C-alpha cells in the first residue's frame, strides 16, 4: 500500500461524509444477467477489502437495470453494509445513470460524492488515495479529485491507455488536470450538483471531457491523484473492441466543437463546423500526444522491441479511430450515433 496509517485514517474521516455511487451499465452488455451479477459480486468483494472500504461511507448507491431482490440482498451482505439500489431503464445512458445515482445522495450526510464503475478493477488503496486530497484546509482543498485509470499493464494495454486515458496538466494549479474520467473521480457534492453531466447528442463517452472543460472555464481546478488507480477492463470480444474503437472515433466529431471553443483563437473557430477537417486535426493531435505519453504518465515502461510494438499499436488503433471520425464527420452514421450513450458493450473478463 502506498499510504501510511495516518493518511488512511484521514481518508476514512472524509469517507464518513461521502456518498459512493457505483454504476453497472457496462455489465449489462451481452444480455446475460448471470454474468452481470457474477461480475458485480466479484467487484463488491474486492471493494470490501479496500484500505478504506465502502462500509466507511455515509452512503453506498448502486444503479442497475434489473437486479433481482434476492441478489440485491446478497450484494448488501457482501458489502457488509446497507446499499441503496437505484433502478434505471434499459435505455438509460451511462452518464444519465450517474446523475440519477447522485439524485439519491443525502445532502444532510454527504459533503462529497465519489464515482466508480463496475467494469473497473481498483487497486487496494484506490478509495483512500482518491479521498485523502480533500483533507486540507478549506482555502486550499480541491473541489474535485481525479484518479488515474488505465488498461492492463501489457504492451497493448499500455498503448490503449495513451489513447483513451490521457491526463492534461491544468493551467489553474500545479498538480491539477484539465480532464478526468467518470469511472474514477470524486467531487464536493455542491460542485457536482451544479456541473453534473449534460446531455450530448450522438456522443458515446465524452461527457466527462466536456464537464472538465466547463470546470476549467469556471476557474475550478481538478486535483490529479495518480496513485488513486483503477484498471479498466477491455470488452469481452474482438468484435466489441473494434466497435469501441469506432465509437471512440465518432466521439471526436461531437467533442471537436467543445475543444475548438476552449483552446482555439477566434479566427480558428470555424474548425468546429468544418465537417471531418476539425476531427482530423483532433485525431492528429491525439496521436502525437499518445506517442509522447509512452513511458510517461505513470505508465508501465516499454523499451526496445516493446517500445516499437507499442508505437505500432498506437498508430494502428489511431488509424481505426480516425476512420470512424471521418465517416461520421462527412455525415454517414449520424442518425445511428444519436443515443449512442445508451449502448452497452460487455465487460465480464476476470
Record keyword descriptors for this entry.
350 residues, alpha/beta, Spore Coat Polysaccharide Biosynthesis Protein SpsA, Chain A, 2 domains, nine-stranded mixed β-sheet, 14% strand, globular, Nucleotide-diphossugar_trans
Give the SSE order as H and E letters.
Answer: HEHEHEHEEHEHEEHHEHHHH
Please mark out the parts with pLDDT under 50 across 5 or more consecutive residues, or reply none. Answer: none
Number of helices: 12
CA-atom Rg in angstroms: 20 Å
Major β-sheet, in short?
9 strands, mixed
Work out the helicity level: 40-55%
Domains (count): 2
Secondary-structure-based class equals alpha/beta
- Determine and state the CATH class of the largest domain: Alpha Beta
Return the average pLDDT rounded to an integer.
91
Tell me the quaternary state. Answer: single chain
Strand content: 5-15%
Looking at the overall shape, the CATH architecture of the largest domain is Alpha-Beta Complex
Question: Tell me, what's the shape?
Answer: globular
Distance between the termini: 22 Å
Tell me the CATH topology of the largest domain.
Spore Coat Polysaccharide Biosynthesis Protein SpsA, Chain A
What is the assigned CATH homologous superfamily of the largest domain? Spore Coat Polysaccharide Biosynthesis Protein SpsA, Chain A
Overall strand count: 9
Organism: Paraburkholderia megapolitana
Keywords: Transferase
GO molecular function: transferase activity
Domain Glycosyltransferase 2-like: 38-195
Question: What would your notes on this structure say?
Answer:
By secondary structure, this protein is α/β, with parallel strands linked by helices. The chain folds into two domains: 5-232, Spore Coat Polysaccharide Biosynthesis Protein SpsA, Chain A; 238-342, no CATH class. 44% of the residues lie in helices and 14% in strands. It is built from twelve helices and nine strands. Strands 1, 2, 3, 4, 5, 6, 7, 8 and 9 form a nine-stranded mixed beta sheet that branches. Helix 3 links the parallel strand 2 and strand 3 (84-87). Helix 2 (33-48) packs parallel to helix 3 (69-79) and helix 9 crosses helix 10.
